[in-house]
Amino acid sequence: MIDNERLVLALNCSLLAGKLLIENGSNMERVNDTMYRIAQNAGLHYFQAFTTVTGIVVSAERLPNAEATDIRSRADNLAKVVAVNELSREFATGKLSLDDLYDKLQDVDHSKMQLSLFSQCMAAAVLSLTLMIVFTNDVKDSWAGFIVGGVSYWFYLWLLKKFRVKYMGEFVSSLLIALMSVASYRLGWTQNVNAIIIGAVMPLVPGVALTNAARDLVSGHLISGPARALEAVITSIAIGCAIVIVLRYF
Amino acid sequence: MVWYFLRQFLLAGIASICFGTLRSTPWSAAIPIALIGGIDWIFYVVIYYKLHLGLAMCNLLAALGISVASFYAARHYRLPMIVFNVPALAALVPGGQAYKAVRYFVMGNYDLTLLYLYQVVVICGAITIGYGLGDVVNRILFYRHRKFRQNR
């Protein structure tokens, strides 16, 4: 017989795991699967989870109250998904006790698990360069895509840290992308503004978010799918408007 | 010709690794991510630009390929499947089209807006269905594998 305190702890474990997975861009089917598995392995009966992109409610038998959490920020940090997955697997095989699982999940929640600023910007810069060549076959101007992509992504991360408003960061760094591309064109260093812009916005555009939204929608999560799609649409509107504002006047 | 494909392969592979790095995938998964992303992009280029199978079918088949490949990579490296199938999408995903749709909408060019919006919807839908079919294919392959083992 499991006592009540342990039941609440198991519920919290499952809640925290679900929160971490949703925050870091896992699809809903996977989230539910992991949460139900943790609950089952912890010995909860009639476990129920209501998962949306902005919050989770869970309940189980013999507990009078449901537990809830809200999810404010969404980042795509797959390292945390890997960590939660590993912990869940260890818990299932019995290597980890419930208390250890909760402690380790909290460690994962508090840790940053991100590369340094410089390597992230380098990755964004190389991504801009390679995708620019893949999509537009423009090798001559690719150095501009490299620089514009890297600098604008650095600016985006800085804004995100400073103001914590994602759409504003995307808007302002897209302004920077357009300004820098237009400036390089005006100075006569490059020929193809469009190719540079398409390359440089690639780290920011919500392609994966759109695809995830469609996947959620198809798998029957009718609240999460449209919510994610709306987020992606707002992001692309922010980027598109910023580019157009600059291109309209120069 | 070979040179063109080699260049596309290398660039798409590097792009996939970088896309993964931005989402902090573990380094041990970098090489399979690059292989999946690069080979799948070549596959897409061949069937889209050479065989002209159309936008929807090409994205569907490419997504199916990614799904099957990343399922096996996930089992082999003992990592969740999302680590492989999100970065491998880097070159396929309709981000550029979404941006272009909004851009032409704000500029008042509604014909091109509709064209790109249509492309976004078609590509998203095709990738989704490709992943769904990939799950089914994975399940078939996986269960057959298990049955063989039981029979032995």
Unreliable sequence segments of chain A: none
Strand content of chain B: under 5%
- N to C succession of SSEs of chain A: HHEEEHHHHHHHH
Q: Output mean pLDDT of chain A.
A: 87
Describe the sheet with the most strands of chain B: none
Return Rg of chain A in Å. 22 Å
What's the tally of helices of chain B?
6
Q: What is the number of beta strands of chain B? A: 0
Low-confidence stretches of chain B: none
Shape type of chain B: globular
Instruction: Tell me the number of helical segments of chain A per DSSP (H or I, 4 or more residues long).
Output: 10
Distance N to C terminus of chain A: 73 Å
List the chains of the largest interface with their residue counts. A-B, 50 and 45 residues
GO biological process, one term (chain B): succinate transport
Pfam families (chain B): ThrE_2
InterPro entries (chain B): ThrE_2 (IPR024528), ThrE_Dicarb/AminoAcid_Exp (IPR050539)
GO cellular component, one term (chain B): plasma membrane
List keywords for this structure.
heterodimer; A: 250 residues; mainly alpha; 2 domains; three-stranded antiparallel beta sheet; 70% helix; B: 152 residues; globular; ThrE_Dicarb/AminoAcid_Exp (chain B); cell membrane (chain B); membrane (chain B); Threonine/Serine exporter ThrE domain-containing protein (chain B)
